[in-house]
Design a protein that fits this description.
With 500 residues, the protein is mostly beta strands.
């Protein structure tokens, strides 16, 4: 990611960045199991509960231990049906695997991580893509440690140490090798990638601007779609945007993802859309003055479909199927466990550019999308070398003056092909004979045609120049436990990283 782009604002107040609360339940990457900490209505005590989601109907299995759990206890399901539980007491973080054994609950202790420093916080990372292992992040005063807490050979294993205080945690590939973390260092937050198979090697991933705070919220390994929150388009105020991993296209910040007086948090991306990130359906949690509801959005569209959340929704939890069905787990007083299913709206057909009076066959096809710095917005011969083309494009947006009227006319819901796209009139096949008699200077294209940007929804926006930054030095390890250690390295300039 080396640049960003934002749609023109509508005067709405900017929302400060406030991380959403942890999801009420955790779902495995393949959608087979979920786990949560449930409250017993009679005893008012907390206990782990496992949900099975890959059958015709979901069902839940309680996994109570010999004593009630603390409200802040973390649970995480594995794809073999066992549930990892993380308990903390006096700086000691203990991990065990729970599993049903007839009427009772079996427990397999895995070991513990000692964090004597009061300033160190340890939490579980999201489920790994393979589903067989589980990881934790220990955030200290000046560095962050990555631990393998389930799936190792000798209990918890220290894998990597990253300088700075890290948050987040997003898997970039399907094997559990590349972990993206949002690192706070020198007063700024930037996303870095930790390679867990190369001794914790650290590389920069996301730096939209030198002084911006950039965080990675979600990533889909199939399509490469990234959901990002950054204050680059409006310093001091965070906005939600999207980009593509390994692409030269800039990060986009659609205005539809920035409603006034609402906090928008993506929580699920539709998988299976290989090489088609614009078609991925994204599920959004929207918190506003009137409550919490669900939004459905695609990068190729400029609108969000708002849906009421099911009663008892386990807020922030959900999973897409490859067919575009969103599954939302819920629990009420009458339904102990349930899953609401919502079909994603059909993607809107891509709008083509208006047909000129005398269409030429080679110009009738939709132009190939190109990176912003290569778009024919102005003569590249007149631009200085280096990063100046981005600044020139941002300062000279002649095509955008004509684009907004077409967007305002778009209906708010998915519709059929607009009426402006019928087949060309019968007279259009006749242009070749007419052009044969045209004087030599007539075939030159109209003056306005070179200024027309490629026809790609949500791609015609301003650009902001980005700069690459450096990484800090390694810091001491956070926490002690059984297992080997890892080294932190800072490879040379790596502005964008593609999984592989």
């Amino acid at each position: 990611m080396t640049a960003c782009a934002t749609e023109p604002g509508n005067g709405a107040a900017e929302n400060e960045y406030e991380p959403a609360a942890r999801p009420a339940c955790v779902i495995t990457a393949d959608g087979t199991y979920a786990a949560r900490l449930a409250l017993d209505g009679e005893s008012q005590s907390w206990y782990p509960e496992r949900w099975t989601l890959d059958g015709a109907e979901p069902y839940a299995v309680p996994l109570p231990a010999h004593q009630p759990e603390e409200p802040g206890t973390e649970v995480l399901p594995l794809t073999d049906g066992r549930v990892l539980i993380h308990r903390e007491a006096d700086g000691r973080h203990a991990f065990s695997l729970l599993y049903p054994t007839g009427p009772g609950t079996g427990e397999l202790p895995l070991g513990a991580v000692e964090c004597p420093d009061e300033g160190t916080r340890l939490r579980l990372l999201p489920p790994a893509p393979d589903g067989d292992r589980a990881y934790a992040l220990a955030v200290g005063r000046g560095s962050t440690a990555v631990w393998l807490v389930a799936g190792g050979a000798f209990g918890p294993e220290h894998l990597a140490e990253v300088s700075g205080r890290c948050s987040g945690g997003v898997w970039l590939d399907g094997t559990g090798r590349l972990l993206a973390l949002d690192r706070r260092q020198d007063g700024r937050t930037k996303t870095v990638v930790v390679d867990l198979e190369r001794g914790g090697e650290v590389s920069p991933l996301l730096q939209i601007a030198e002084n911006s705070n950039d965080r990675l919220l979600l990533a889909d390994p199939d399509s490469g779609l990234l959901l990002i929150r950054s204050d680059a388009p409006s310093p001091g105020h965070h906005r939600l945007g999207w980009g593509v991993l390994g692409s030269t296209l800039p990060v986009r910040f659609p205005e539809s993802l920035h409603p006034a007086d609402c906090a928008v948090t993506p929580f699920a991306i539709q998988p299976g859309q290989v090489l088609m990130p614009e078609n991925c359906a994204v599920a959004l949690r929207i918190d506003g003055p009137s409550g919490t509801w669900v939004g459905l959005w695609r990068p190729s569209e400029r609108q969000v479909h708002h849906l009421p959340a099911p009663e008892g929704w386990l807020t922030g939890a959900g999973l897409w199927s490859r067919e575009g069905v969103l599954q939302l787990p819920y629990a009420t007083g009458t339904v102990a466990y349930g899953v609401a299913r919502v079909q994603a709206p059909a993607a809107q057909p891509e709008r083509a550019t208006p047909t000129p009076p005398e269409p030429e066959p080679e110009r009738a096809a939709t132009p190939r999308p190109v990176p912003l710095q290569q778009a024919p917005l102005t003569s590249r011969a007149a631009l200085p070398p280096g990063p100046a083309p981005l600044a020139a494009h941002a300062a000279t947006p002649p095509p955008r003056a004509a684009t907004p009227p077409a967007r305002t006319a778009t209906p708010p819901a998915s519709v059929a092909t607009p009426p402006a796209r019928p087949a060309p009139p019968p007279a259009s096949p006749a242009p070749p004979p007419a052009r044969a008699a045209t004087p030599p200077d007539h075939p030159a294209p109209p003056p306005a045609r070179p200024a027309t940007p490629p026809a790609r929804p949500a791609f015609e926006d301003e650009a902001v120049q980005a700069e690459s930054g450096g990484l800090g030095a390694a810091a001491p390890r956070n926490g002690t436990g059984r297992g080997g250690g890892g080294e932190t390295s800072t490879p040379a300039e790596t502005p964008a990283l593609a999984p592989g």
